[in-house]
Every structure is written in structure tokens, then in C-alpha cells.
User: Fold this.
Amino acid sequence: MDLGGTNFRVCSIKLHGDTTFSLTQSKVAIPRELMVAKTSQELFSFLAKQIESFLKQHHNDHFEGFHQKREAGQDLTDEHFFKLGFTFSFPVNQIGINKGHLIRWTKGFDIADAIGKDVCALLQAEIDALHLPVKVAALVNDTVGTLMARSYTSPGKTGTLLGGIFGTGTNGAYVEKLDKVTKLKKMEVKGDFDSTTGNMIINTEWGSFDNEMSVLPNTPYDDALDKESNNPGIQMFEKRVSGMFLGEILRRAILAMIKDGKTELFSDESSKTNDVHSTCTIADDSPLYKQWGLDTSFLSIAHGDQSQGYRITRQALSKDLGVDAASSEDAEAIKIITEAIGKRSARLSAVAIGAVIIATGNLTLTAGEAVDDEHKQLIEEEVVDVGVDGSLVEYYPGFEQYVRDALREIEGIGEKGEKRIRIGIAKDGSGVGAALIALVAGGIDGP
Ligand code: ADP
Ligand code: MG
Assistant:
């Protein structure tokens, strides 16, 4: 199961063992009131109930069989339980494959009593309360899931270096050499891990890069968004990059222009419908007046709009934002601001991706350093594979292209390096990765 910031997905996955898989899933929007529930039990019991209805719908034979055995008092062993991979995309201190304590909430969540608790235990308790045939086998961050899913599905032999999320929030996880993980040496409580590969996956939590704001770009809209969020001063990088925030930045920029009056946004006299002059109106209950009222999907529409007179953007203004009879100049202005917000987001994303690629030294060998022709060819062909997931990177028009343009400008990557970076969408990566990790963690037995 995958608890993102916006959606909750339950899925069962059949791996075909040949880079392909089939997936059955159910998806619900997480109710806003549960994101700020009084107790964590409210959220986790909702999640357990979703698992229950998924099992009834898609695995009813097993579900019924399990209950009959349980009621008849028969022994229930490991193979009667589904192994669950729990993708929980918030910062945790993970101390075992299915054990991790919540450090802090992000992305608009705020449930005080969960802080410091083992989120797997919280979930298992609610699963057990419903007597479901499910054991939480692995705790997975969505970035790690994406990295795993991309490694499984990506073409060729090259392993994946980095898994990145550009959805409600943004974050990345990458493969690091174990001996560079100094934190492990300092840790008083030793974590439980396998050192045979010499590697460890690091969840960077890059969403909180530069919280001190020493290098991040800033505008009055960013400032106001942060101050009125439920975690001011935290996740400052994420607040300039990801889906939860881009719409809110645009909303604040539009409101400022309306209030300032100098720009004539939505108030010029040239708004025309069927050659009849009509004045643009903004509904009193327009989402423009509500915090988080403007969804980032609107930016994708405006940014990608190639229609005559920006008809599509004007339709969306009317339908989504209650702004009627906007002029094409209005729509064009919105498009220009949107492009600035989207481009900034993608270029900042390139900073995070580029930093990981440079820090791991994956691009540093040059053909000139090759020991022989064969080696030279290998170096020249070598790709650095990056898997990404999330609605922003998936649907925002040209997002990857902006990322690539920026990567080329980064010292240490350049045109040559950028060509070697292969970026692929790991569709449903968070769910598939969780299943892969649960499989590895829990052994191959199971229904
Ligand atoms: P989650 O973060 O819960 O895993 P998603 O990856 O679907 O879920 O990301 C949801 C975020 O993506 C929301 O903030 C939403 O505003 C944004 N989003 C949804 N559709 C689009 C779109 N077409 N273009 C850009 N952003 C989108
Ligand atoms: Mg997600």
C-alpha cells in the first residue's frame, strides 16, 4: 500500500520476473480531516479498512478462507498471510526492514501523537483489530520504492542510481557505498542491515534542502505560502518544487495582481465573448480566495495551452476557478506566470538530481581515462539510470526537458554528461517497489 500525500493506494502485484508485472489497484483521495486527525488511530484504522475492502473485492476467496480457518480455531501460519509493503512517504528513522519511527509530518499532515512512533506497529495494530490476513513485512519510502521499481523494469543491465518523486512532495533516494555512510558508525543503536553488497540506499529527504534559505530563490508568494503552512521554515526546497505547492504559489501571485489593480488582470475592457463585450467576473466563492484552492493540474493546462486565444486556459479559469469571460490577454498573463513557476520547479529538481549524480561520481570517468578500446566503449555507452514517479513529472508538460536543459548547465555534468543520464518514469513505482521489497524481506512463501 502507498500512502502518498494526496492519494492512498492499495494494490496487489504479480511479478512476471522478466521486467514486467501486472497490477490490481484501488485508489482513494485521503480525506483532508484525517491528515490532521486528533489521533493517529483515526488515520491508520481508515487505512486498514481500505485494505479490508480491497481484499474483499480482489482476493475474496483467500479472505473468506482465512476467516473460516480462524473461526474454526485452526493454526494460521506465515503462508496464510499476505506480506504487505508499506510505502509511507514521510521522514522516518528506519531501524529495521519493517520498523521505523516518524520524525515529522510533511505535505499538510499534522497528527501529533504519531511523532516518534513506529508507523508499522500503528498500522499492524489496526490490521489486527480487523483480523485481516496481512503482515506488514516492509516499510518503504516512496523514493526507495521508485528506485526498486525502476531497477526491476529498466532496460538493459545497468542498475538504477536514483529514484525521485515529484508528486505532492519531492524527495529522492540513491545507492551509496556503505563505507560512506558515516551515520551508521556513529549510531548508538545499531540498525539491522545486510552489508554483503557494500551498498546502502540513502533516502536524502531533499525536500528540506536549504531550510535556512541561503541559496534558494524566494518571492513574496513563497514567503506567504510558507508562513501560512502548518510547517513554516521546513521543507523549503519542496515548497518551491512539488505539486502541493505550485498551485498555491500561482494562486497567491494572481491574487496579488488582482489586488494591486495596476495590471488590469481580469479587469480590462477587452474581454470578448461572441463579439459582445463582456466584463470578466470572479465568483465570490472562487477557489482563488481559498488557501490551496488552485490545484497544480491547472498549471499543466495553462502551460501546455497552444489553443487559439488560449481558449483552453480560459475554459479552465471558468470551470475550475470561477473566473468568467477572461480575455486572451488575461490567459496569456496566467500562462507566463505559470511557466515561470513550472520552469523554476523543474530547474530546482535538476539541482537535486545533478547533486546526487555528481556526489556519487557516476559521471567522472572520461573516455580519455580508458585503459583500452573496449573500456572506452563501455564508458561512452554507460548510462546513469534515474527512475521518477509522481503526477508532476508525469503530467506537467515539458518537465523533463526543463530538467535536462538545467542539467546541461551544471558544471560537472555538461552536454556530454546530460546525454548519459537516462530518466524513466517508474509508473506506479511506489506500489511496485513496496511489493518488491516486501517479497525480498518476507521470503517467497505466501498466498
Ligand atoms: P502522491 O503524492 O499522493 O503519491 P501524485 O503523485 O498523484 O500523488 O501527486 C499528487 C500531486 O500532483 C498533487 O499535489 C496534485 O496537485 C498534483 N497533480 C495532479 N495532477 C497533475 C497534473 N496534471 N499536472 C501537474 N500536477 C498534478
Ligand atoms: Mg506517490
Observations:
- The chain has a mean pLDDT of 91.
